[in-house]
Amino acid sequence: xxxxxxxxxxxxxxxxxxxxxxxxxxxxxxxxxxxxxxxxxxxxxxxxxxxxxxxxxxxxxxxxxxxxxxxxxxxxxxxxxxxxxxxxxxxxxxxxxxxxxxxxxxxxxxxxxxxxxxxxx
Length: 121
What we know:
The structure is a single chain. By secondary structure, the protein is an alpha+beta fold. It has a single domain (2-101), classed as 2-Layer Sandwich (Alpha-Beta Plaits). 32% of the residues lie in helices and 29% in strands. It contains three helices and four strands. The chain has helices spanning 16-33, 66-73, 76-88; strands spanning 2-10, 37-46, 53-63, 97-101. A four-stranded antiparallel sheet has the order 2-3-1-4, with helices on one face. α1 (16-33) runs antiparallel to α3 (76-88). 13% of the residues are buried.
């Protein structure tokens, strides 16, 4: 069992690099300091016609339990995201969809979760 979060976030036009810095810092903090964070994946959609990166991010997160989720939501890195939300993201930090779940199938092969290289400016 675990707590799963699905979230869609839109970065503000022209603010993508700053938004991505916040997201990467959040990921680093969760990986290094939040052992209850089991999975933390962020994908940036690509335009179907041009294959260029869009401003839309999809988050998929898995936490061991409610305490692990609370550790993430009270971390300094998440507080930084909330503080800078109006500058870098559209809307407001809405409540993501989260629920308790039991995995019934699935796997990840080594190397199956590549991390995108930073684009040169």
